[in-house]
């Protein structure tokens, strides 16, 4: 669990500094810098934590894996708490009070925001299942890198509309640090729906049951 908190702490410190150096995500340069920062740090942190905690770093990932039977609900709750703790510590210690909180763009309502977050998170979790979870994966050890690239691409695609959070913990930290909870529920409902659907869809349609890795009995899991 400590690994999840430390991963989120490192990730958010990079988010804070990338956002400051780029002048925020309101410009093409800023959005590109934020997307690249997301892609690189997610790839590195997932790779670093994969053999310890599974490298979830995202409550939506944890819930999706729970929906697919790869982690128990009790352990999922512990993971989510650790992720929220890491995000909160990073934002409070990294000066994220001045960092923009995730917010819907002008003209984008809450239903559209939920849809954006659900679709983006679905693509992220589908990639996680295909490149990391599925024992038949053919990408070797490139899974974390591919997951990071999808995160970066989704930030470029959805950032101007919903902020492309795809991660409730990522939205929770800045909201806690700034006290701005506007539309916070959008960044929980959308990713949780998209992540759960991705897990159920991949498990039901693509996972070969004979090769399905059951939950380990030694207390370790993805």
From TrEMBL:
<keyword id="KW-0677">Repeat</keyword>
<feature type="transmembrane region" description="Helical">
    <location>
        <begin position="185"/>
        <end position="205"/>
    </location>
</feature>
<protein>
    <recommendedName>
        <fullName>Aquaporin TIP4-1</fullName>
    </recommendedName>
</protein>
<dbReference type="InterPro" id="IPR022357">
    <property type="entry name" value="MIP_CS"/>
</dbReference>
<keyword id="KW-0813">Transport</keyword>
<feature type="transmembrane region" description="Helical">
    <location>
        <begin position="114"/>
        <end position="133"/>
    </location>
</feature>
<keyword id="KW-0812">Transmembrane</keyword>
<dbReference type="InterPro" id="IPR034294">
    <property type="entry name" value="Aquaporin_transptr"/>
</dbReference>
<feature type="transmembrane region" description="Helical">
    <location>
        <begin position="28"/>
        <end position="48"/>
    </location>
</feature>
<dbReference type="InterPro" id="IPR023271">
    <property type="entry name" value="Aquaporin-like"/>
</dbReference>
<dbReference type="InterPro" id="IPR000425">
    <property type="entry name" value="MIP"/>
</dbReference>
<comment type="similarity">
    <text>Belongs to the MIP/aquaporin (TC 1.A.8) family.</text>
</comment>
<dbReference type="GO" id="GO:0016020">
    <property type="term" value="C:membrane"/>
</dbReference>
<dbReference type="Pfam" id="PF00230">
    <property type="entry name" value="MIP"/>
</dbReference>
<keyword id="KW-0472">Membrane</keyword>
<feature type="transmembrane region" description="Helical">
    <location>
        <begin position="145"/>
        <end position="165"/>
    </location>
</feature>
<dbReference type="GO" id="GO:0015250">
    <property type="term" value="F:water channel activity"/>
</dbReference>
<keyword id="KW-1133">Transmembrane helix</keyword>
